[in-house]
Known about the structure:
Helix content is about 15%, strand content about 30%. It is an alpha+beta fold.
Amino acid sequence: MRTCISMIVVTLIFAYYVGAADPPPRFQDFAVTNIFKGKPAAVDLSSHPEARKYRTQLRRQAAEGPNFSGHYKIAIWGCGTSCAAFAIVDCRTGKVYFSPELPYVTWTDWIGEDYGLKFQLDSKLLVLKGTPVEESKVGTFYYIWETNTLKLIRSDLKK
């Protein structure tokens, strides 16, 4: 009887600590149901001062249609070794957004093959596996696209 009670107590304690860990955000936690299916609008190069500089990439990639948060296109291009810059284009209006919080990302110090930006058409969650703006922090960073800006909601740093 004592052994049985001890095992139950140990099991409950273990379940408490395992359950207490805050699970990372998932794409389905930030689902978007209104998916744009029309022809993408022409990129509005006057909507952001940086847009003209990247006009070829923005036009080419935006023409493919949305890939993020229902009606946005995350257009990505290289900016050096293990580095990517990106902009977010509204496929309905053509307006271009550059994130001041996250102008580019790197993964120089990332170990493994699952690195870079992760996103889905039906979610407003953007996940970065690497380093934001060459900071000394390496890990997984979770951003939400709200009010036309990326907001950091969580970061899990690698030890």
